[in-house]
Design goal:
pyruvate-formate lyase- activating enzyme, Rossmann fold, binds cobalamin, 2 domains, six-stranded parallel sheet, alpha/beta, six-stranded mixed sheet, 40% helix
Length: 452
């Protein structure tokens, strides 16, 4: 069979960070890697391609169009499925990805034949073998239109398979992570035991932390040609076993690359001794969720660290010269004084890059129920659920003032606190220009929202 795997284009009206962080469609590369054994497969990355899906379908004549999805993509994915069906009703459409896992119902639509709620090597292989033979019975993890999207009831999770890095060869120069371009992404271990209240990631991967099969990881590391790898693990600093195993592997393979990782405050403090080693083998930046300057909010979010721990972690990371890309969440009950206190707190932490996003109680998270009555938009207003837009009505100041404070704080901390000349030296003027262009776009979108 000919299978076209599609990543939908950027959603222009949504607030996204994809101008700063723009990675490869890792899930599609895995599907490609598994299906290429028996089928003719191609990836069509519409975040880069200028061509329409119809033109691509005319060229490739696929039997199946499989589309990946994130929260803000739902309407676009449905449009693409319709476009495929209009080209030929015989084309089979299938949807997968994070959003299909978290909320498959959003894809119940006449133009969607199958929804992969979760994908494993086994269900993927069986599914394609059986539709090739004209059969479509019920299968674990897959909901079909024919069976009214009923699930078999068996729960499961996405399996980490070996991605085929060559499948996106023609796009790879464009994939970047902030100042690092080109950059690849991969995962070393799945799950997150911290189960913070606002976070989706343990919902996706579970609360058990597990290392991905080392042989697979080793193969994948050998295949990556980019000088920078961003690890998407929820908390790379979650266990001594993981740190030792990574450091040993990098040394064994004699890899000389830049690494970017997510790391918790707790992990920085507990595993300080490994940070020196990580820095020596190439760790350049750690993405740290400091979240807030208030202890009561940290405990309400079920974070296991305090505001003072944040400061301690920042000092440790400075000591080892590891850049910090910090993230904070603005609570909807903040007033102007709170934003001012946040700016002062960030001055103490001195991260290299800071993002402040409004708290987003995503549907399915326990927090959704808490804020349900204060939501500004409907659950089905998918393009707004970007984690960049204010979704909960602020209680102390107007929405316009709230946006103003968010914008002011984001600009203030990134322009005045971060050392911009140092960044130009580190990333080069071309990368800084790309980032500035992205920032201007974001500022424009924020201003439009302020006047909505
Ligand atoms: C890398 C990444 C990105 C990359 C690219 C992701 C992509 N797929 O295109 C970039 C940087 C572009 C990105 C952007 C955004 N992201 Co992001 N991202 C991630 C991250 C760190 C890893 C995702 C990943 O690669 N997982 C591993 C792969 C293997 O999993 P997977 O894609 O689900 O694929 C598996 C299955 O789903 C299946 N599959 C996938 N697609 C398909 C298709 C078919 C047909 C089939 C059969 C199977 C299948 O195959 C895989 C098998 O295991 C996650 C956090 C995390 N650690 O999970 C956030 C995350 C997915 N992102 C998130 C968000 C919110 C965003 C943004 C909206 C943020 C923003 N405001 O800018 C933007 C949206 C971009 C846009 N549409 O314009 C949320 C998603 C929430 C949701 N409900 O979807 C997450 C969970 C982070 C969070 N906030 O908690 N992101």
């Amino acid at each position: 069979m000919r299978i076209l795997l599609v990543r939908p284009p950027r959603i222009k009206q949504a607030i996204t960070l994809s101008d700063f962080m723009f990675s490869e469609p890792l899930g599609l590369e895995m599907i490609y890697g598994t299906l290429k054994e028996d089928h003719e497969v191609e990836i069509f990355d519409m975040m880069i391609e200028q061509k329409s899906l119809s033109v691509k379908i005319n060229e490739f004549m696929p039997h199946v169009v499989g589309i990946t999805s994130l929260c803000i993509d739902v309407f676009k994915v449905l449009d693409l499925c319709r476009e495929a069906k209009e080209m030929s009703p015989a084309i089979i459409t299938a949807v997968g990805g994070t959003q299909a896992y978290l909320d498959p119902e959003g894809f119940y639509d006449d133009h969607v034949d199958y929804i992969f709620e979760y994908t494993t090597r086994a269900n993927l292989k069986t599914f394609f073998a059986s539709i090739n033979g004209g059969e479509t019975g019920s299968m674990d993890g897959i909901r079909s239109k024919q069976l009214s999207y009923k699930s078999t009831g068996k729960k499961g999770r996405n399996e980490y398979m070996l991605p085929d890095r060559m499948s996106t060869e023609k796009y790879r120069q464009d994939y970047s992570y902030f100042g690092y371009k080109p950059a690849a992404i991969m995962e070393f271990g799945t799950g997150c035991q911290k189960v913070c209240d606002f976070c989706l990631r343990w919902r996706i991967e579970g609360s058990k932390e597990k290392l991905i099969n080392l042989e697979l990881t080793e193969n994948d590391l050998r295949n990556i040609k980019e000088p920078t790898i961003m690890f998407i693990d929820n908390d790379f600093l979650c266990s001594e076993e993981k740190l030792i195993s990574f450091i040993t592997l990098v040394k064994e393979l004699n890899l000389k690359k830049n690494y970017i990782m997510y790391g918790s405050v707790e992990g920085v403090i507990q595993y300080e001794k490994y940070l020196k080693l990580l820095r020596e083998i190439g760790l350049k930046a750690l993405l740290v969720g400091y979240e807030t300057f208030k202890d009561d909010e940290l405990s309400a979010y079920h974070k296991s660290s305090s505001a003072d721990d944040n400061i301690r972690a920042a000092q440790i990371l400075r000591k080892y010269k590891i850049d910090v890309w910090a993230s904070f969440m603005a609570h909807p009950d903040w007033d102007k004084k709170d934003f001012d206190s946040l700016r002062k707190y960030i001055k103490k932490l001195k991260p290299q890059i800071t993002t402040i996003s409004p708290l987003t109680p995503f549907p399915n998270l326990p927090m959704f129920k808490v804020f349900e009555d204060r939501l500004l938009y409907a659950r089905e207003d998918y393009e707004r659920w970007s984690f960049g837009q204010v979704m909960v009505k602020p209680s102390k100041i107007s929405l316009k003032e709230y946006y103003y404070e968010l914008l002011k704080t984001n600009l203030y901390v990134n322009i005045f606190i971060n050392k911009n000349t140092e960044m130009i030296k580190k990333y080069g003027i071309k990368n800084i220009y790309r980032i500035l262009k992205g920032s201007l776009k974001a500022v424009k979108k924020y201003r439009a929202l302020m006047n909505e």
